[in-house]
Amino acid sequence: MIVTILFFALALIAVSGAVSLIVQRHPIHSALSLIVVMVALAGLYLLLGAQFIAAVQVIVYAGAIMVLFVFVIMLLNAGAEERTNVSRMAAYIGLPLSVVLAAGLAWWTASGSQALSALSGDVTPTRSLSMMLFQEYAFPFELTSILVLIAILGALTLAKREGGAE
Amino acid sequence: MVPISYFVVLSALLFGLGVVGFLFRRNIITMFMSIELMLNAVNLAFVAFSRAFDQLQGQVFVFFVIVVAAAEAAVGLAIVILIARNRQTLNVERVNLLKL
Lengths: 166, 100
Known about the structure:
Chain A is an all-alpha fold.
């Protein structure tokens, strides 16, 4: 029972944070709304028994990535967004696709989703997760280090002031 | 107890809100944050299905998605800084040199 209440509370926080992210006109308010969404999602991961993912979500997403966002917003001194007319692509493609998504969701929940099991109380041990990560997925894990290295170099090269080397 | 479909529906809702934000907002930083929201929604679906089928692969994939998102945020924000420096605006409507 308490799990159900917690789920609906966290889901409400997440969805209202996401709506706030879209509605706010100032980027810093959007960034703070996104942090709310991420913390609520971390709580949902705990409900699903994935403590490691919940911790990583708070540390990496809410901590590192969002600090980067807030830092860039501060650095660029981004003001409130100016109002322009809504693009035609949004009206002609986005709205029909949203309707399709909502209809698909309604259909999917109405039919056969009960086949999936309900949540029990046990949790995923971080030990077995790390065993899988470093044995079965050791090679992809090593590849991500190259990816991060390339990302660092790319960010450095892109954000470098011009006129130094060239 | 909460059926797993609730989590999937919440994930789809968040993904849809991310798509709406990406399509309707014109500030490049907010559009970027909408992409992050979509990545988070997909992560939630991954964890929910990992739980539903009692398999750990879903959580491992979430781990990789978070790493890729961090790399993407670093490079993407560098591009945002570059655009802001070269064009003095964050509005994507004004970054239209390639438009006919």
